[in-house]
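Protein in question kept in full:
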Amino acid sequence: MKKIALVLGVMLSNLNYAQIPVNENATPEAKQLLIYIASLGDRILSGQHSYNEDPGKFYESVYKITGDYPAVWGTDFYWNGQNDPGERVVKSAIEKAKEGALVTLMWHVGRPTDSPPYDWSESVQNKLSDENWKQLLSPGTDLHSRWLKQVDHIASYLKDLEKARIPVLWRPYHEMNGVWFWWGNKPAAYKKLWKMLYNRLTEYHQLNNLIWVWNANAPRDIPFDEAYAYEGFYPGPEYVDILATDVYHYDYEQHDYEALLKLAAGKPIALGEVGELPKPNILQKQPQWSWFMVWSNWLETANTVNRVQEIYNYSKTLSKDEIKK
């Protein structure tokens, strides 16, 4: 896909350093994308998520509000209806990449003890017992085999994107430091789970178009809705290309930003999901965010038109067309 290679190859002559993917066999497109993101400095890529039943809806809403398309388009492989959304996600990702957008994909997957479609509260946000975790992490068990089936299924769609030469900012098992997903609030087990996923997709399936985005939640001390410190859940620099966090309710705490920067140790950081957009004065104090991605309908329910226009008009914000310059 020559157009994508051209878009992602911009500004290479001005790099201060080259970010090397953790996957030594990363595709040229993935390498170029990571280099580009590492070169952004204090500029930030705009981004917008849409639900997979209508993958372009809120992306188009941004254009209606600002006259610009976001630089980063995102959606989710979450299977919550009778029909598997995978083909629709792949088709939309290819369309957006051809238009010049960068692609980020996530995976709200249900517990491996369950079968698709996955109910939100009864599966995605339910718990696994300690015994379930032990079996999940033990090759040869029935539960581990069920997990492999989940991963192999999603790998088939990621392979379609690799064949199309599309690099993916891949952020699975996100918000792991929170208490609300089945994979959350289990630091040691989670790190093993992340490494298992990395090895299955990278070594077994030889998927080389993935940029691995480890995406936590901004720490918070809300009873029954806690999110704990980043470092306890980090699987290590050899398994992560970019570190991201999710910020809702305008919780752009400076000490959390600095904690993530320290943990990243030179790797790029990003705002994987946001509710309320950061104001320009926040970005001036936190200039190293590589991109922000507004969560679907929060674009309209948590932000005013003026707020959206303000951040898209900010001199450091890059829209889709501006990543080509």
Q: What stands out?
A: The two ends are 18 Å apart (CA to CA). Residues 1-18 have pLDDT under 50 and may be disordered.
